[in-house]
Amino acid sequence: MSVPRPTADEDVFRAVADPTRRALMETLGRDGEQTVGALAEAVGQSVPLVSRHLAVLRGAGLVDERRAGRHRIYRLNPAPLQDLFDWAALFSGFWTERVLNLRAYLERQKHET
């Protein structure tokens, strides 16, 4: 029996897999709170499409929403990214070794020429 996978709106890994959602998170992280209209303009997408992406990010806990009159204001909640960071950290030794090997190779090439 297989374990059911979380949907993108519940899973941080799947939520950040989409480049538009990553762009939205980057915009919120860089510029602070934004309306959906400002976010749509920033990422060059339609308001309905950005609203759907924001719903996924909200479901994963990556953005918070508050109402200000008729507007919805979104802000980044980076706390759920800790799971992603912890997982990626498992591979840091791998990349460090690869970079060191590349450096050694390039040094050898430089001395041979």
Automatic annotation (TrEMBL):
It holds the Pfam family HTH_5. InterPro entries: ArsR-like_HTH, HTH_ArsR_DNA-bd_dom, HTH_MetalResp_TranReg, WH-like_DNA-bd_sf, WH_DNA-bd_sf. This is Transcriptional regulator. Gene3D superfamilies: Winged helix-like DNA-binding domain superfamily/Winged helix DNA-binding domain. PROSITE patterns: HTH_ARSR_2. Residues 1-96 form the HTH arsR-type domain. Keywords: DNA-binding, Transcription, Transcription regulation. GO terms for molecular function: DNA binding; DNA-binding transcription factor activity. SUPFAM superfamilies: Winged helix' DNA-binding domain.
